[in-house]
Amino acid sequence: ALVEKIKNDPNSLPFEQVHFCGFNALSTAEEAIIDHLSTAGTAYTHWDADHLFLNEKHEGGHFLRGYFKKWGNSEKATWIKSNFLQENQELKYIAASGMSLQISAACKTISDLSEEERDKTVLVLADETLLSSFIYELPSNLGKINVTMGFPLSNSGLPKLVSDFLDLQILKRSSKKNIWLPRIQTELILGHPYLYAFQKEGIDRALYWMKQKQLSSIPFTRLLEELGEGFVTNLLEFQGDTVAVLKKLIDLSMDLFRKYAGIYKKEREDQEEKSFRDRRELEFLYQLNQELKKFRELMGSHLETMELAGLKRVLNDLLRKISIPFRDPQPDGLQIMGFLETRLLDFERVIIVGVNEGNLPAKRRSNTYIPYSVRKAFQMPTFEEQDAIYSYHFYRLMQRAKSVSLIYNAEMGSMGTGEKSRYLPQWEYMRRKQNQPIEKINYKQKPVSITNQSKEITIEKTAALMKVLEEFTIKEDGRSFSASSLSSYIACPLKFYFRYLAKINEVEEYSPDMDARILGSILHKALEILYGPLKGKQIDASIISSLLKDKTKIEAALNTALKEEYWVDGVNKILTGYDVTNRDIIYELIIKVLEYDRNRNSPFKLLDLEQKVKTNISLSSGSSANIYGIIDRVEQFEQDGIALHRVTDYKTGNYDQLDGVTARKSLDVLLEKCFSDSKFDKDFQILFYAYLSNKRSPLKNFQAGIFSLKKVRKGVQVLPTSGSYTLADLQLFEEKLSALLEEIIDPQIPFTQTEDKKRCLYCPYNQICQIPDAQMGKFK
After folding, report:
1. How far apart are CA 742 and CA 748, in angstroms?
2. Roughly how many angstroms between the first and final C-alpha of the chain, as a whole number?
3. Is the Cβ–Cβ distance between 744 and 619 less than 8 Å?
């Protein structure tokens, strides 16, 4: 419309002169406006052009050469011509492998500058995704900085909160008696950092309950009981259609804004340093609230016909594109900019990070069905124009700079993508022709980071740590050493420290199906229920046969075990998916155990089941240590005319005596292995249980057996492999155990890493120690 207006009457504008300054790529309409005003004599144009763009067939001068040809001889066209190819310029090409090293190289370049030099410096992020990482890596002594780029809202966690809330609304299901929430989405909502702090105790209680019960679908009314009253509870209670859901999200963002505003106000009054964080979160929440309101106004009545899944897709796409501007009333100091924000600005020093293909020039995006040849024939924009614009801005940025550092990623990607930008060899070629030097740097310095350090960690037994260890020794009702904790120490003393003293728990990932631990617990409980009435009785094949025939009793025992160990009650939780198959597997394992006992050559007397033993062991230092264990089964039977006790432990994992059978034939050799080699941890455990059982009721002659449920056909694999142990043999075990406990509580012996690094491969704490993969045998 403006073009037509000026074309019909160029003097219709209320200006005697119209000046156009600093343009490079004009649209068709802009070019027509300048043409008509030039004809009328009111247009003045000012072009910032270098000889590089005008005199050479240079990609960056694609537009300027056309305009110079059209308006170059006009008296009202001013061409500011420079020739920066002839100027002396300190130019550095810095190759760095990966994002971290690029950032490190840029920070090193900045830190070498004085405060006065930094005031005349711009740091340009060609790859704008580096911004958040770069801000955290900036040297602390920089002084003032001005960030003109926007901070992506997606980095705040708010879009994830919106997405998780919508998922909860989409995936929840209703029955006649209750509403069921999906486990994963419920955990994400409860644990979200924007919500967790407002109902911490209730959320912790609910998360523990969900974990304990191994629920895949959460009964809504029961969850509310665990949560109690609060902000998060009110959020979960919400139900509604698409219009109501969007309104709830708008209200949620405002509620959170008010809550964080209260936190910010209190911290400001208390003069705490954390207030910057809350100011930033206030900005995020305010921007989210405004964007959601704009979206509601834009959609209008269309929201009523939109499904929740569609709302989620649209909002995810919308919020991903939002950036929060950094605001500074005094924009001085080091300037941090995106590439296209540098247009027409001059700096003495220029540092560009991410000078790679795909960033400079940007990736070619063709959102059109019109072929290139057709677009070219009809003078429509193509990727060539986009490349020309990027080329112009790249060289224009360096036009008046005295020092330029170009940092690029030299690490090749999985498909050969980490190629440096074409502008680098182009500029190098042109400068070489003019005998202008280029300094090339291969930046190899690794940034200070825990991930780049292999740590030899030693934990000295300080007074505070010794006080923790006293809980295992001085207090009779205190903590106890278990077989698994001692096996952990044998494998690696540092691992024992992390797990049992520092109490750094392993991350337990949720699985919708029962894992091996749960499967074993259910099996143990079912066998305890079946054999419980037989405790203290003499059991022969006929008793087991009658039990095998009573399928109803076996089913009842299994169902009770499922309810107690896996909370399967048919109402709040039912078996689904693979758990249906797992139940059948447990049933078959119960049958196999019963069949093994039926087929034994001699009857046996069942002395105890799930025997809990807590006792202590005297140490040579004069103190004692508490020890504890739960023994699956203790029985008595005759073998070769000798009355034997057998301590049996059921294992859902693998155990095979053929692996190391030579060591198991000799008690001295076996004990040496048990107290030094983690591969013999199951042998150590069953001997430990035999020792505990002997503490309860002395065993004159005994065997220690492991029933591996992965090798049911082998039955109970016993130690010793033939014959039996005696009280004298237990005395040897006690001496070894006592020495191990003395070492653990000795204040002069620190907790150190294992020397056998192959044990670290599957250790949950190997990221703390940073043992190299090669040492762990990962590649063998």
Report:
1. 11
2. 72
3. no
Cα separation of 262 and 198, whole Å?
12
Kind and range of the H or E run holding 751 = strand 751-752
**DSSP letters of 534-554?**
GTTSEE-HHHHHHHHH-HHHH
Query: Which residue type does 85 have?
Result: L
| 64: amino acid identity, one letter | L
DSSP letters, 475-501, are -TTS--B-HHHHHHHHH-HHHHIIIII
- Tell me how many degrees the CA angle 265-266-270 measures, rounded to the nearest 5: 120
pTM of the model: 0.66
Closest CA to 745 of 486, 555, 476, 560: 486
Please tell me the distance from the alpha carbon of residue 102 to that of residue 122, in angstroms, as a whole number: 16
User: Are the C-beta atoms of 114 and 327 separated by less than 8 Å?
Assistant: no
Q: Which residues contact 397 (CB under 8 A, 6 or more apart)?
A: 124, 342, 345, 347, 350, 352
CB atoms within 10 A of CB 710: 13
Structure tokens at 234: 């009110």
Nearest-angstrom CA–CA distance, 512 and 177? 23
Q: 47, 80 in Cβ contact below 8 A?
A: yes
For residue 515, which of 559, 563, 554, 566 has the smallest C-alpha distance? 566
Please say whether the beta carbons of 22 and 46 come within 8 A. Answer: yes
Please check whether residue 536 is in contact with residue 607, taking contact to mean a CB–CB distance below 8 angstroms: yes
Q: How far apart are CA 560 and CA 527, in angstroms?
A: 11
Question: Residue 364 is encoded by which pair of tokens?
Answer: 């070619």
Q: How far apart are CA 740 and CA 691, in angstroms?
A: 15
pLDDT tens readout for residues 218-233 = 888 889 999 998 889 9
**If DSSP codes are grouped into helix, strand and coil, which group holds residue 43?**
strand
**Per-residue pLDDT tens digits for 129-176:** 788 788 878 877 777 788 888 788 887 889 999 999 999 999 988 877
Q: CB within 8 A of 496, min separation 6: which ones? A: 485, 488, 489, 744, 751
Where does 155-274 have alpha helices with state H? 158-171, 183-190, 193-196, 200-213, 220-227, 231-236, 242-270
Which residue type occupies 512? P
Cβ neighbours of 335 (radius 10 Å): 21
Instruction: Categorise residue 303: left if φ over 0, alpha if ψ from -120 to 50, beta otherwise.
Output: alpha
d(CA 702, CA 694): 9
Q: Walk along the chain (780 residues) in steps of 10 and give the mean pLDDT of each run.
A: 84 88 89 89 90 85 90 87 87 90 90 89 88 80 80 85 92 82 89 89 90 82 89 89 93 90 70 53 88 92 90 92 74 84 90 91 75 76 83 92 93 62 92 90 62 71 93 86 95 94 80 82 94 93 94 95 87 82 94 92 91 90 90 91 91 85 90 93 95 87 91 89 91 95 94 90 86 71
Sign of CA pseudo-dihedral 641, 646, 651, 653:
negative
Q: In what order do the strands lie in the sheet with 90-96?
A: 145-147, 334-338, 121-125, 349-353, 403-409, 90-96, 439-443
